[in-house]
Specification:
This protein has 264 residues and is of the alpha/beta class. It is built from ten helices and seven strands. Strands 3-2-1-4-5-6-7 form a seven-stranded parallel sheet, with helices on both faces. Helix 5 packs parallel to helix 6. The mean pLDDT is 96. It binds NADP nicotinamide-adenine-dinucleotide phosphate.
């Protein structure tokens, strides 16, 4: 008999970046599937509120882990909180972007971006992935991006960080496929979230976080890389067909156009 999503990836899921946008939506859709949830992000009040709301609506348990994923020792508290829990699904989703000429941006912020977007998902996948491999059961989703498929001027570090997420997820998917663990790189294009406000860009034909997450949960276990939305798939197809310098130039122009300048 076909296993349910909860049987395959439950009983607990850990979602990073659950306080907003795509992670918030992951929390809602996973709660509806009956998984117990651990929420990780910095804004505790938002996570507390989310836990109250979902526990009222569904028969599930939620735990809140206020954590700054850019901190070097962030794993120790997460390890303590989850020691007795079977985390069958890891959603490596927290992240942020910076916009502008790399050399004019603050270096500390760029390094922090690498810690949150790359170092933290690596550490969490290593920790929870090992347990899943031993149990021969589980799933890991990395929220990458369509910009992970090409170099992007004015998003140099951010796009490179998403290329890391994409390639790490895809390679890990191959390594773990015979061990009962499914890994997926979810590669959204512009999605309604707080991301743009923080990165300092305007939204360009955004998709809903609801549609992005639905696609991710549908595709887990069926493929290794997924791109929500037909326009985003066409974008990636054009990246693959065009010479690298062309797609890099086109994406650079787009980012320059949607970049918010003071007063815009
Ligand atoms: N929105 C888009 O257009 C888009 C497109 C492609 C890919 N993505 C990717 O989607 C993922 C989710 O972003 P989003 O679009 O949903 O944006 P968002 O609404 O800004 O959410 C980002 C989440 O990451 C968390 N986060 C940021 N820095 C953190 C830190 N230092 N420690 C712990 N948590 C941290 C935030 O929580 P706190 O602030 O509470 O810590 C928040 O929950 C990111 O990886 C992003 O790169 C977004």
């Amino acid at each position: 008999m076909k296993k349910t999503f909860k049987e395959k990836y439950g009983p607990w899921a850990l979602v990073t970046g659950a306080s907003s946008g795509i992670g918030f939506e992951f929390a809602h859709q996973l709660a509806a599937l009956g998984l117990n949830l651990v929420f990780v992000a910095r804004r505790k009040e938002r996570l507390d509120q989310l836990a109250i709301e979902l526990q009222k609506k569904y028969v599930i348990q939620c735990k809140v882990m206020p954590t700054d994923l850019s901190q070097s020792d962030f794993l120790s508290e997460i390890k303590k909180l989850t020691a007795a829990l079977e985390i069958g699904l890891l959603i490596n989703n927290a992240g942020f972007g910076t916009t502008g000429e790399l050399l004019e941006n603050d270096l500390e912020t760029e390094i922090k971006l690498l810690h949150v977007n790359c170092r933290a998902p690596l550490i969490l996948a290593h920790h929870f992935g090992k347990k899943m491999k031993n149990r021969k059961k589980g799933g890991i989703i990395f929220t990458a991006s369509i910009v992970g498929f090409t170099a992007v001027p004015f998003w140099s570090n951010y796009a490179a960080s998403k290329a890391y997420d994409l390639f790490l997820a895809e390679a890990l998917a191959h390594e773990l496929k015979d061990h009962g663990v499914d890994v997926l790189a979810l590669c959204p294009g512009t999605t309604k979230a707080e991301f743009q406000e923080i990165a300092g860009t305007r939204m360009l034909m955004p998709m809903s976080a609801e549609a992005v997450v639905r696609r991710g949960l549908q595709k887990l276990g069926h493929t290794y890389v997924t791109i929500p939305g037909i326009l985003n798939r066409l974008n990636v197809l054009s990246i693959k067909l065009l010479p690298n310098t062309w797609s890099t130039r086109i994406f650079g122009r787009i980012i320059r156009t949607i970049r918010k300048t003071p007063g815009s």
